[in-house]
Structure formats: C-alpha cells, structure tokens
Amino acid sequence: MLEGDFWDMTPRAYFLKYEGFIELEDNRRHDTWERERFFTVAIMNMWVGKGQKITPQKLCLFPWEKNIKKGGTIEKPKRDVERFKYWAKKWGAKLPEEIIGEQDS
Hints:
elongated; 2 domains; 5 helices; mainly alpha
C-alpha cells in the first residue's frame, strides 16, 4: 500500500484491511500445516494394514478445525454470532431472519 493510500483511509477501512491481512496470513499458515499433515498421512498409510487407514483428522486435529462437525460443515462459534448481532444493532442494520433466530437459546 502506498503512503498516500494509507493517509486517505478511514479508521474503519484501515481495520478492515488489517483484519483481511491477518486472515490471509492465518490461511497461509493453516495451508502449510494441513499440507504437511496430508503428506505425513500419505507416507504413514503406506505402512499400515489394509483396514487400518489413517485420516488426517485422526492423526492430528488442529485448533481451527475444532468447530467442524462430523458432516463436514463448519459450526459458527456463538461468540462470533453474538458479536455480529451487537455491531449490527449498533449500526442499525437489519438482520436476515436466519441470523436473528440462530443460536438464541
């Protein structure tokens, strides 16, 4: 980013860009760890018996995968949903019905 672009940004735009950068770096780090786990599983599966295949999640479950259900869908943490509702209410945004009714219990 150029210096002029930085000084022209609003604080909100800056923090959105910053959060996007952090998310990008986290995804890169996750990809590296998951790639290494995949290669390790591929090598280990060459040495185990026929009915004893190892899956990547059985070998090592990463902290960012703990919200994944058995069906493969990602469960949204309640804290994130509550934070979203808080900011939407503060900004006066109208929320979709599936978010309003979600996890209210």
